[in-house]
Design goal:
alpha/beta
Length: 295
């Protein structure tokens, strides 16, 4: 890790003198270096150390083999936009014979395994041990962080808040909450939070669904030592700079660019939670808060 960290530091010291456009300033690079240093310091406090064993590597960590870059795909943290970027850049839509965007402006198929393969994205866990060690030491890596509670509210609103026919997420969760599945079925945000915080005896623990699982578990930041952290709250600026540095392109390459700059949480949902529930969420997402400097 130390070797990887100092190699990154040398890289940034080098480019800070050669790049003075696209907003890639010494201040921004130092902020990224500070974020990496914080990650390293906080990771030392983690009791259960993260490693590269295949049994512990989630499928969210993806390797752009063509460009030798690692990206961690975190649901509700602009992951569809990034996957579409890889599809577009590697001409996967032409390979698949499909149009990347439909008339609604949504990206309907970016999360399929066929799409990932066609866009030269290969799960990190599929490489052998020697290859993973090489990637861990030498490939630039990036992810998008987001306030854990803002991400949770977003996941609830997208997957569980009832806006029409019962979807697959609700079909799984409604019976777990002791509710029937019908057109009038609903799950409140407080019920959802209670479910997440209660001990589970389920064979397949749905509390660990990737849409609301802590992204520290999804991305293994204490093992992979990410080069760049794009903050969702500063998405447009950070993403534009990372795109210039890693792909020599701009934010125009990303669809559905995030317009939310303030990072404000949806208080209408969080204000209904009790102090006990809020404390439970802080404990559940403890490492997301601490590793990525959220309060």
């Amino acid at each position: 890790l130390l070797i990887s960290f100092y190699s990154h530091t040398f890289f940034y010291n080098l480019i800070v003198h050669s790049i003075d456009k696209h907003g890639i300033t010494a201040t921004w690079l130092k902020r990224q270096e500070k974020a990496r240093s914080r990650l390293m310091a906080e990771c030392k406090k983690m009791k259960n150390k993260q490693n590269g064993n295949t049994t512990s590597i989630p499928q969210n960590i993806l390797v752009d083999e063509k460009n030798r870059i690692v990206f961690c795909s975190i649901p509700k943290n602009a992951c569809s936009s990034w996957k579409y970027f890889f599809i577009q850049r590697n001409n996967a839509s032409a390979i698949l014979g499909k149009s990347p965007l439909n008339g609604t402006g949504k990206v309907p198929f970016v999360h399929s395994k066929d799409t990932l393969l066609s866009s030269n994205l290969r799960p990190f866990r599929n490489f052998n041990i020697k290859e993973r060690e090489h990637i861990q030491r030498n490939y630039p890596k990036f992810l998008v962080s987001r306030h854990p509670l803002a991400r949770l509210v977003s996941a609830y609103r997208d997957k569980l808040e009832h806006h029409g026919p019962v979807n697959n997420f609700m079909r799984i969760l409604l019976p777990l909450l002791g509710k029937s599945i019908n057109s009038k079925s609903s799950i409140t945000f407080t019920e959802f939070v209670d479910y997440l915080l209660k001990p589970s005896s389920e064979k397949r623990d749905y509390r660990n669904n990737e849409h609301w699982r802590p992204y520290t578990d999804l991305c293994l930041p204490c093992y992979l030592n990410y080069s760049y952290v794009i903050r969702y709250e500063n998405f447009n600026d950070d993403a534009d700079r990372v795109l210039h540095l890693l792909y020599n392109t701009s934010l125009k390459s990303l669809p559905h660019k995030n317009q939310q700059q303030s990072g404000l949480l949806d208080e209408d949902y969080l204000s209904n939670l009790t102090k006990k529930q809020l404390q439970g969420l802080r404990e559940r997402y403890y490492w997301d808060f601490h590793l990525f400097a959220y309060k």
